[in-house]
Structure formats: C-alpha cells, structure tokens
Amino acid sequence: MDVTITNSVLVQPAHDTPSEAIWLSNVDLIFSKFYVRTTYIYGSIEEPDICVWQRLREALPKVLVYFYPLAGRLINDSSREFAIDCNSEGVLFVEAVTDSDIEDLRDFSSISQLSSLAPTMDYTQSITSLPLLLLQVTKFKCGGVALGVTISHMVADGMSSLHFVNTWCDMAHGLDMMVPPYVDRTLLQARNPPQPFFPHPLCLPFPKLLHKEGQEEGNFPISFKRFRLSKEQLNCLKEKAKDDSSKEAFTSFIALTAHIWKCVCISGNLLKQQETKLYIPMNGRERIRPVLPCGYFGNAIFHASPIDMSENIVSQPISYIATKIAEEVNKIDDHYIRSQIDYLELNPNLKIEVSRQGKLYPSMVINNWAHLPIYATNFGWGKPLFMGLTLNAPEGYCCIKPNSENDGSLIIEITLRSDRMDRFGKLLYEF
To answer: How far apart are the C-alpha atoms of 99 and 42, rounded to whole Å?
Structure first.
C-alpha cells in the first residue's frame, strides 16, 4: 500500500508547562530503546481531508499541556540510564493520504500494509534525539481514516498510551480533562536497601528450543493470524478448565491462555523434555499497596511467568494448566512487585537485556487487552473498526483483544511459524 506524506510538523503544548527532568523507574527502563506502534482504522467519514487533520492537530497542543512529558526528550542521567527532559520540543504529527481503500486491508492481518500507517523509528539515531511520541493521520481514498501512534515504551505502557489517546479524543470534542495524568514515578522506587525476595523469571533467558538428533529448525516463514472465539465457546472453555476436585472457576483469560499454550505446544511437536514458559504482562496499578493514583502515567507492568515441561502441557487437562497459570498470576501482589523493582535495582544490566530478547518460541508472551478501552477512541467518526499493534512480532507473541462488536467474543492475534500456525488454527477450535 502506497502512502504519501503531505505534511509533517512538531507540535508543542499550547502554553508553558513544567520544565523538569522526570525520573524513570526500573519498570520503565527495562523497555530501553523500544517504541510501540498501534493503528486505529475508522470507516468512511463525510469530512474533507483538511478538516480531519485540523480537528486532531488543533486538539493536540491542548492535551499536551497535561501530558507534557510526551513533548520532551530522553536525556542521559548521571545516576541512572535515562530521564525525561520536559523541554516541550514537541511530538511529531504527520498528515498522509493513500489511494487504497480500507477494503484493501481485508481482515487487517497484513502487518506490512498496516506498517505504513504508523510512523517508523530510525534506531540508528541517538535515542535522546528522537521524539517520544509520533502520530500519523492517513486519509483513504474511500473516505476512511487511519490513526497511527508510535510511542516510547519507556514513557508509557498500554494503559497510559490509551489514557493519552482517549483524552485527546475528548478534547477534540471540546470536553474537559476527566482524569489528569499523574506523572511522578517515584512511587515505584526501589527500597533502600533493595530486598528482593522472589525469583523473577522475567529476567532469565528464554528456554532454548531443543531438536531431535539430526533435526534442524528449517527455514519456514513466520505467519501472523487473527482468530475469534465466541462468548459461547469461551464459556465452554471455562467450564472445561474447572478443576474436578475443587470446581474452581477461572476467568475467560486464564482458561483461554491455558488452551492457547496447550495448542502451541502440540502444534510444535515439541520434545517431551522441552521447557516452555509464558510471560503474561500484568497491570500492577491496583495490585501494589498503596494502589497507584488514578491516571498514573508510566509503566506499571509486572510479569507472571508460569513454566513447565512440554510433556505436561500436552498431556495434562486444561484444568492443570489453568491452575498453574492462575497461581503465577495471583503471585503478583505488593510483595512481588516490590521484590521485582528491587531485583532490577541490583541487576541494572538486565533492564536492557530483558527488552532485547528477540526469540520467544517455544515460550510465549500473551498480552491481555480484553478489558482495555481500545474501541473508545472516537474523534467524532464513530468507534474504530480495528485497533491493534503494528509490529513484526517474534514467533510466540500473542495478544487477546475484545471484539469490536462488544458481543463477548475475544480475538486472538498470534505469530507462529507457518507450518505450526496451520495446525494451531485447527486445534484452537477443538475442545
């Protein structure tokens, strides 16, 4: 898909904002040099191109008055790796057009097509010279609109990014700020002295893929696909995941994650002694004590990391896998969170290594977006037809999202090797 950029400008806050250096927590710094790209797609709207761009561009300086760290730049800090210099240098706002129609995107499963709708990063440049937020508004020939958001993960996690975008929407409608961002991150400081108590698998290398003697991995293409499970199918999975002895009920996310893990292990025909691990990002805002302030702007992500042998995941019932996942998820409380922050304080090099581990399989990252307001981004054109990540994810990356129809179904987006994907797609619906 050909996209033509018609204008590009740096946008500053509408008036003076605090000129300060914002301290970054250990939980921010593990995402060093990593930007997240997301794309929102809207159906045909009856509004001239210039009005579409103007509506968003005029609201942007207003919202940046509150989210002023996004208009700054990273600086090297003498005591830590980076801090945010709130210098109001600005965020990049790009206007673009394409001769393509939204129908050309089909089911939004082509990452190469979506990639042209969100700003890309030039990682050859010094990270301290790059904007922390880049935005692109693209008008389709059919009248549809795409909003691409590229944001530094050191500055914001998914919750914070959505907080910014949805507030931007409100201000484009002339509404006042509802939940101001809380930008002080010192609430997530390590203890003095640090007191890590738990092991933290997030900081350990992924298990290596074992091969049968004489077997090689082969050169198969990586495939990205999207699947849907209905509310009825999810209820069936939840019922199947109940422990026969305790009859413990699991959430849709736990039951579905257990099923996905099992299907991935079976589809890969892994050796029995193969270790496989899940990385499940968890929002720690309400798990820490005291809870973080409403509107906390930054990273508050902590990982549950269940691990087991492939033989067990393949042979045991879903109730066994769901119980193992739930146990790790339930560990993420105030004690665990404080321990992880302290562990990273004592192991500063891991902050960079954690975000640079490119190969996942036979392990997985499973992101839970099921309850995030990803379809609340309405600039006056209705809710988006699609919202999703725009990245070439490694094999083993998975994201669980709500369906745009709000019918109780869930969307599974997953990246696997093409031969494994074919079998996974069949196994997913066998339960």
So the answer is: 16
Start-to-end CA span in the chain (Å): 39
Instruction: Classify residue 127 by its DSSP letter.
Output: G
Q: Cis link prior to 290 (omega < 30° from 0)?
A: yes
* Sheet with 91-98, side-by-side order of all strands: 3-11, 91-98, 133-139, 145-152, 35-42, 386-389
- Classify 422 as helix, strand or coil: helix
* Kind plus residue range of the DSSP H or E element containing 198: none
> Residue 73: pLDDT band by 50, 70, 90 thresholds?
very high
Fold of 3-188: Chloramphenicol Acetyltransferase (3.30.559)
pLDDT tens figures, 74-89: 999 877 789 999 999 9
Query: 375-399 burial, b if ≥16 CB within 10 A, otherwise e?
Result: bebbbebeebebbbbbbebbbbbbb
Q: Where in the chain is the domain with CATH 3.30.559.10?
A: 3-188, 218-376+392-427
The pair of structure tokens assigned to 298 is 């930054």
CATH 3.40.30.10 fits 218-376+392-427, yes or no: no
Q: How far is CA 239 from the centre of its chain?
A: 28
